[in-house]
């Protein structure tokens, strides 16, 4: 071993952020095993690596005892006192036992250990770096794709985006630069794995924070998001400041703020609605753009309600393939049954007839 090793360790720390102490500790532990394996020794040994010179020394560590029973592990008090009169019982003394040809073995061991620890430390650095990005947006470059994933190079790590995390209809080609939302960083045995998404509601929230300063600083708060990625989303917002219009602020002048987000998501439609404390008013807002005549709550299930809309608004309230009603239900957390005024009248007439019949009986 030589100063070349010290130089290599310094370079690893500077270029890859791998602390020199981590590699040295691993190297010393591996050299202890190598010494015992190659020289058939079972005694308690330590290996010391000189960080300045790159020299390696092997020491047998022996305990000071009254009577020696195992000379590989123990040394008598009398012998210890000939070395240094300050030694006492139970002290430990190091005797250098570095073999003459240990340099070759240590070089081979060092190479193996350093490569292994470099891989482990690099994985640790990557995990530590990207675990901080959980629930955040990062920009990456599409590197490749297969039947399971789109692989996104984040610069130092390749993230994976599963099919359910991709926006339907979007095409991801190599070298495309895309914004993705980090959903999870998993520190598995094979190394850290970063999972990203374009379909998660968290992506939409972070995009609004990027485009709307009032959302970023908390003046306007996103209360809830319901999203069918690539098609349509509903976002409920509120503000504690009565002078702030949370919907208008989020949409921006001439719709510029929300349009930037729509463009990033390749045309995904956005409904920005105001969250209010009154559940009926909130549910009516959530069914935007449909007009709502009344919201009636189920007495037996407080999270269920019937929404009455004008006859000509029924299809708009329900939406294409039920999407508007479905998103409103997800946004508010209520089970919503939408009826036209005509259907609602018939429904209540039937209820009245049933009640009358039960009374007569």
TrEMBL record:
Q: Name the InterPro entries on file.
A: KH_dom-like_a/b (IPR015946), KH_NusA_2nd (IPR058582), KH_sf_prok-type (IPR009019), NA-bd_OB-fold (IPR012340), NusA_N_sf (IPR036555), S1_domain (IPR003029), TF_NusA (IPR010213), TF_NusA_bacterial (IPR030842)
Q: Which residues form a coiled coil?
A: none
Gene Ontology MF terms = DNA-binding transcription factor activity; RNA binding
Query: Which domain of life does this protein belong to?
Result: Bacteria
List the PROSITE patterns hit by this protein, alphabetically. Answer: KH_TYPE_1, S1
Q: Give the primary localization class.
A: cytoplasm
Gene3D superfamilies, alphabetically?
Answer: 3.30.300.20, Nucleic acid-binding proteins (2.40.50.140), NusA, N-terminal domain (3.30.1480.10)
Any Pfam family matching the protein: S1
Q: Where in the cell is it found?
A: Cytoplasm
Mind telling me which SUPFAM superfamilies this protein's record contains? Answer: Nucleic acid-binding proteins (SSF50249), Prokaryotic type KH domain (KH-domain type II) (SSF54814), Transcription factor NusA, N-terminal domain (SSF69705)
Domain (S1 motif) spans 135-199
Keyword field contains Transcription: yes
Instruction: List the GO cellular component terms.
Output: cytosol
GO biological process assignments: DNA-templated transcription termination; transcription antitermination
Q: Which UniProt keyword terms apply here?
A: Cytoplasm, RNA-binding, Transcription, Transcription antitermination, Transcription regulation, Transcription termination
Q: How does it assemble?
A: Monomer. Binds directly to the core enzyme of the DNA-dependent RNA polymerase and to nascent RNA.
| NCBIfam families named among the record's database cross-references | NusA
Please report which protein family the annotation says this sequence is part of: Belongs to the NusA family.
The record describes the protein's role as: Participates in both transcription termination and antitermination.
> HAMAP family in the record, alphabetically?
NusA_B (MF_00945_B)
> Any idea what this protein is called?
Transcription termination/antitermination protein NusA
Which organism is this protein's natural source? Answer: Pediococcus claussenii (strain ATCC BAA-344 / DSM 14800 / JCM 18046 / KCTC 3811 / LMG 21948 / P06)
């Amino acid at each position: 071993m030589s100063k070349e090793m010290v130089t290599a360790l310094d370079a690893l720390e500077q270029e890859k952020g791998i602390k020199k102490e981590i590699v040295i500790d691993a190297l010393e532990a591996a050299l202890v095993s190598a010494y015992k394996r190659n020289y058939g020794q079972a005694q308690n040994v330590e290996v010391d690596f000189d960080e300045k010179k790159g020299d390696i020394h092997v020491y047998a560590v022996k305990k000071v005892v009254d009577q020696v029973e195992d000379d590989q592990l123990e040394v008598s008090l009398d012998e210890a006192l000939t070395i240094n009169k300050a030694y006492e019982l139970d002290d430990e003394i190091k005797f250098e036992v570095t073999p003459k040809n240990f340099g070759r073995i240590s070089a081979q061991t060092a190479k193996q250990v350093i490569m292994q620890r470099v891989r482990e430390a690099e994985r640790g650095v990557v995990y530590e770096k990207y675990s901080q990005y959980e629930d955040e947006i990062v920009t990456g470059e599409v590197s490749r794709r297969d039947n399971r994933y789109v692989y996104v190079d984040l610069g130092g790590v390749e993230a994976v985006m599963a099919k359910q995390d991709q926006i339907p209809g979007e095409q991801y080609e190599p070298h495309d630069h895309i914004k993705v939302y980090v959903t999870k960083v998993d520190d598995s045995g094979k190394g850290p794995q970063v999972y990203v998404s374009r379909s998660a509601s968290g992506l939409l929230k972070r995009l609004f924070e990027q485009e709307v300063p009032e959302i970023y600083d908390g003046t306007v708060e996103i209360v809830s998001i319901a999203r069918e990625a690539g098609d349509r989303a509903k976002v409920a917002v509120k503000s504690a400041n009565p002078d702030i219009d949370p919907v208008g602020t989020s949409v921006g002048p001439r719709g510029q703020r929300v349009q930037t987000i729509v463009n990033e998501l390749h045309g995904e439609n956005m409904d920005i609605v105001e969250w209010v404390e009154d559940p009926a008013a909130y549910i009516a807002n959530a069914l935007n753009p449909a007009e709502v005549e009344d919201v009636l709550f189920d007495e037996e299930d407080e999270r269920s309600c019937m929404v009455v809309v004008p006859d000509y608004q029924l299809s708009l309230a329900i939406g294409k393939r039920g999407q508007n009603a479905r998103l409103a239900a997800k946004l508010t957390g209520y089970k919503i049954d939408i009826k036209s005024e005509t259907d609602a009248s018939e429904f209540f007439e039937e209820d009245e007839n049933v009640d009358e019949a039960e009374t007569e009986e």
